Amino acid sequence: MDKIGIWVIPAVVLCIVLFGSFRGVPVFDAFITGAKEGLQSSVSILPTLVGLIMAVSMLSASGALDLLASFLGPAAGALGIPVQIIPLALIKPVSGSGATAILTQIYKDCGPDSFAGRVASVMAGSTETTFYAVAVYFGSVGIKKTRHTIPAAVAGDITALILSSLSVRLFFQ
Amino acid sequence: MLNYIWTGLILFSIICAAATGRIQQLSSAVLTGAQDAVTLVISMTGMMCAWTGLMNIADKGGITLLLSKALNPLMSWLFPSCRKNGKAERAMCMNMTANLMGLGNAATPLGIAAMKELKKENPTDTADNAMAMFVVINASSIQLIPTFTAALRAQFGSATPFDILPAVWITSLGALAVGVLCAKALEGLFDG
């Protein structure tokens, strides 16, 4: 599996460059024109990221996650979701690195092959940092009214939370 | 809605920090958080330029057109308002392909490029249905091989780090389906 992983990027780059050359595209010129747009995108998402990451750092420094998790723990237990997953489910939509830190903690405490470890892995492996995606994508083009985007995306996240413990039960118990 | 969520995050953090006596940590988090964002953007810029550059070659060479023709039935159901095989649709196809292949680092710059194309078709500050659908797909993005999580499991001594694959497929497919269906179902309920 790792062998395939290291070949993906070289193969994609090779395909794009060869195909372009074959079609008579001035590949280096085209690359530079495109890269300029990337630079502008980077600059245009910076303010959004400063706002978002600042708020998320404040959230993780405040101890709010532990508070929320202890509050939501009993409800999770009733749904068959391991309690250890709750902080992960709360942080994953806003911060990828925060999620990795909690995932590491779960592996240390329960082991990666325990029930909680597997559910956490499935959750982390099958969801994205929702609010980060929403903020960056809309922020980069100056969209202010996001309409139904967040409700629909959050519905997806809740589904992932429920399905992760269900599917681990299905395959491992 | 992002305004409310952002305000909520900040208020909630300050109240919790005051209640748990962590105001000191909170006040340094304000500064480090802002700093982290700048570091992140600087470290991301190289990747961003590289992938938008390659994307431009792919677009000029016609790969993106081939992709969007292949994905046409799916695309016209997901984004009925978009011009068939137009620039926005081609960029969205590249982004979705990158997501499927697990190239998360490439998917973001390609996705932002796609948003810029969508914005050209809708020059307001309100998301249209295509934008909302596209962001929902990226927010609950499907992953075939979660290499990062598997590597982390292996590092902590998992016997078979990839044994979660079927569960990941079911979960991410289910979450994506619910997200997409909700986006379709809710689009009539929210006006700009």
Mean pLDDT of chain A: 89
* Mean pLDDT across residues of chain B: 90
Structural class of chain B: mainly alpha
Largest sheet of chain A: none
C-alpha Rg of chain A, in Å? Answer: 20 Å
SSE ordering of chain A: HHHHHHHH
Number of strands of chain A: 0
Domain count of chain A, please report it: 1
Task: Give the count of helical stretches of chain A.
Answer: 8
- The portion of residues assigned to helices of chain A is over 70%
Percent of residues in β-strands of chain A: under 5%
Biggest pleated-sheet summary of chain B = none
Largest interface comes to: A-B, 101 and 109 residues
What is the first-to-last residue Cα distance of chain B?
Answer: 12 Å
How many domain units of chain B? 1
How would you spell out the order of helices and strands of chain B?
HHHHHHHHH
User: Approximately what portion of the residues of chain B adopt beta-strand conformation?
Assistant: under 5%
Helix proportion of chain B = over 70%
Description:
The complex is a heterodimer of chains A (173) and B (192). Chain A has 173 residues and is mainly α. Helices cover 81% and strands 0% of the residues of chain A. Chain A has one domain (45-172). Chain A is globular, with a radius of gyration of 20 Å. The mean pLDDT of chain B is 90. Chain B has helices at 2-20, 23-61, 63-70, 72-78, 87-100, 104-121, 129-139, 147-155, 165-186. With 192 residues, chain B is an all-alpha fold. Chain B has one domain. The interface between A and B is large, with 101 and 109 residues.
